[in-house]
Write a structure and sequence with these properties.
By secondary structure, this protein is of the alpha+beta class. It folds into 3 domains: 68 residues, no CATH class; 63 residues; 147 residues, Transferase(Phosphotransferase), domain 1, CATH 1.10.510.10. 44% of the residues lie in helices and 13% in strands. It contains 11 helices and 10 strands. The strands form 3 sheets. A 5-stranded antiparallel beta sheet has the order 1-2-3-5-4. Strands 6-8-9 form a 3-stranded antiparallel beta sheet, with helices on one face. A two-stranded antiparallel sheet has the order 7-10. β4 and β5 form a beta hairpin. α1 crosses α4. The longest helix has 20 residues. The N terminus is likely disordered.
């Protein structure tokens, strides 16, 4: 059945879906989108459709198409990040890009069972010249600009805290975890961590922080100026609050709309990554059903 066959009700459903969609693939759920896109454009054309918001839906539909075809561009601490499907290209300050590349190589050359597992949380292939070009094994999207249901924020935060616990075990602090440095893999419920501009050894002097997300860092950082796992823990929590719909990342405004124990966890103080991760896993076990819920973005 096509959109044209289904009448006003189906057209209104299409309009609502377009206005709520965060990506073209989430809307049409197929990479062979062109014929479905053309049909939807004809259906929503102002000469044929007089439903309220049809014009807005048509504008949004074209925005989603351009975003998908041209890729997504955001700015971060070094410059710009262009991403599409399985490829991400970082452009900007050559010093910061080289620093990020070198820090990433340190992690990719670690050995051991845990290191082997966490390679899945890092870009698969990385090349550096004047830019950093990274390849992923699956299609991935930056968290920036996304708002996800609770059930998906649950596993994103779990992956982040697990990654932070591993980094701490290896003696590292990422120092810049935020929606622009984390990519989500909808197909596998995985994450990929990028943008290692601020990474330091635990206890080393911290010379830079993410200017955009400066208020996400613990206050002690600006007094001690030392890299500690507390930075990564707090930035993970702030990222989770952001994904739940609080752009500030602070989470306070979520207290009236979301599960109290979850928000309390985001606001609680944790200093040890493993303790934080295990407390969080216990929280999930107590309040949420353990099952795989597909994510289409």
């Amino acid at each position: 059945m096509t959109y044209r066959d289904t009448g006003i009700d189906r057209t209104q459903i299409l309009i609502d879906k377009i206005l709520q969609a965060q990506s073209l693939l989430a809307l049409f759920k197929t990479t062979d989108y062109k014929s479905v896109y053309r049909e939807a454009v004809k259906l929503l054309h102002p000469d044929l459709c007089y439903l309220p918001a049809a014009a807005d839906a048509l504008i949004r539909l074209n925005e989603l198409r351009l975003q998908y075809e041209k890729g997504q561009v955001i700015t971060d601490d070094a410059g710009s990040i262009w991403s599409k499907d399985k490829t991400v290209i970082f452009r900007g300050d050559s010093y910061l890009l080289e620093k990020s590349y070198q820090n990433l190589q340190q992690l990719k050359h670690l050995r051991g069972e845990a290191a082997f597992h966490f390679q899945h949380y890092l870009p698969t292939h990385v090349h550096f010249s004047n830019t950093i070009e990274a390849q992923f094994s699956h299609r991935a999207l930056p968290l920036y600009g996304l708002q996800l249901p609770q059930e998906h924020v649950n596993w994103v935060l779990s992956r982040l805290l697990e990654m932070v616990a591993w980094l701490a075990e290896e003696g590292f602090v990422h120092g810049g975890i935020n929606p622009k440095s984390v990519f989500i893999v909808p197909e596998t419920h995985g994450i990929i961590l990028t943008s290692f501009y601020h990474m330091k050894r635990e206890g080393e002097r911290l010379r830079t922080v993410s200017a955009t997300y400066k208020n996400w860092y613990p206050a002690s950082v600006f007094a001690d100026k030392r890299a500690t796992s507390l930075i990564d823990i707090e930035c993970c929590k702030r990222t989770a609050a952001y994904l739940l719909g609080d752009p500030s990342g602070l989470g306070i405004r979520l207290q009236k709309t979301h599960l109290a124990p979850f928000i309390d966890f985001l606001l609680d103080h944790h200093t040890h990554p493993y303790d934080c991760y295990h407390d969080y896993r216990r929280l999930l076990g107590q309040h949420f059903e353990s099952r795989f819920i597909p994510l289409v973005l």
